[in-house]
């Protein structure tokens, strides 16, 4: 289990970033960054959340982690400063507001702002632990455990027990088959863990 790492954009940091940054809003489901796209700016989520996905050669996607308010995407950061294209896809999990820092300003920020450097190190630590959890889940956890953990994460993001999601969406994000998800959800409902509805699930 990853440690709770505090990632906070302080008012002082935000004040330094705003003069050369852009704030944009995206609707739920919008693709913010696609795989193989050029990375021109580093995102910091101000409101809402983003899910970060990775696609294999056969077109199957898997959820890597969520970016929550006050957080950024370390994959975009590393790819941007090395002038590489994106290896991930970032999608708005809900309506989201993002502060974009142009990549050309990042090296100077790292040199002149100790708080910014500390923020990046904490972000890297948090994302590394989250990716280790993904590997651990794929290698060792049974699918029902992965589904329940996935649903609990969705509940935490939504702030309530009922989430709007289809069995196919769960299957896509966990890189498995819909029939497997449906079967396991029915077992979980029988065990009193969830309540299933039409395109919605209540986590009990």
Describe the fold and architecture.
It is a single chain. The protein has 2 domains: 11-139, Jelly Rolls; 142-203, Arc Repressor Mutant, subunit A (Orthogonal Bundle), CATH 1.10.10.10. The protein has a 4-stranded antiparallel sheet. The longest helix has 27 residues, at 114-140. Strand 9 (194-197) and strand 10 form a beta hairpin. The chain is elongated, with a radius of gyration of 18 Å. The protein has 204 residues and is an alpha+beta fold. The protein contains 7 helices and 10 strands.
List the helices and strands and how they pair.
Blueprint: H1 11-17, E1 22-26, E2 31-33, E3 41-47, E4 50-55, E5 61-67, H2 74-81, E6 89-92, E7 96-102, H3 106-112, H4 114-140, H5 143-158, E8 162-164, H6 167-174, H7 178-190, E9 194-197, E10 200-203
Antiparallel strand pairs: 1-7, 2-6, 3-7, 4-5, 4-6, 8-10, 9-10
Helix pairs in contact: 6-7
Short description:
This protein has 204 residues and is an alpha+beta fold. The chain has 7 helices and 10 strands. The chain has helices at residues 11-17, 74-81, 106-112, 114-140, 143-158, 167-174, 178-190, and strands spanning 22-26, 31-33, 41-47, 50-55, 61-67, 89-92, 96-102, 162-164, 194-197, 200-203.
